[in-house]
Amino acid sequence: MNLKTEVKELPEMNLAAVMSLGIANVEPSYNILIDWAKKKKLFPRENVKMISVYHDSFKVTPPDKVRIHACMLLDKNLEKQEGWYFQKPYMPESLL
Question: Residue 20 phi/psi, 5° resolution?
Fold first, then answer.
């Protein structure tokens, strides 16, 4: 696999995110994020942008250990944070 790496400076973004450990847990993380956003009336909306942030390389990290954030770009910063907050990567019990 030949990937071209490009570093860019981007403007500040307001993101809501759920971290997952392992490639198999990315889809459940996005489902948790979307369920949360629906409760906040942040989803669905026109032109919503979802972003995956990879913290590890598959070249050196086993797929079940790769750390990935499932993110949703928000229109503005949330004033009050409510709901779940995880200190460690979240993995649904059904996947343990």
Answer: -125, 155
Terminal CA-to-CA distance of the chain, rounded, Å? 30
Across the range 46-61, mean pLDDT stands at 92
Integer-rounded Cα Rg, in Å, for the chain is 15
Q: pTM here?
A: 0.74
Calculate the alpha carbon distances from 91 to 7, 25, 59, 76 in Å. Answer: 30, 7, 23, 28
Q: In whole angstroms, what is the distance from residue 13 CA to residue 37 CA?
A: 17
Q: 75: which 2 tokens?
A: 């229109």
Output the pLDDT for position 91.
52
The helix/strand count (H/E) of the chain reads as: 1, 3
Tokens 């990315």, located at residue? 26
| Token pair in block for residue 21 | 């450990």
**In sequence order, which ranges of 1-96 are alpha helices (DSSP H)?**
26-39
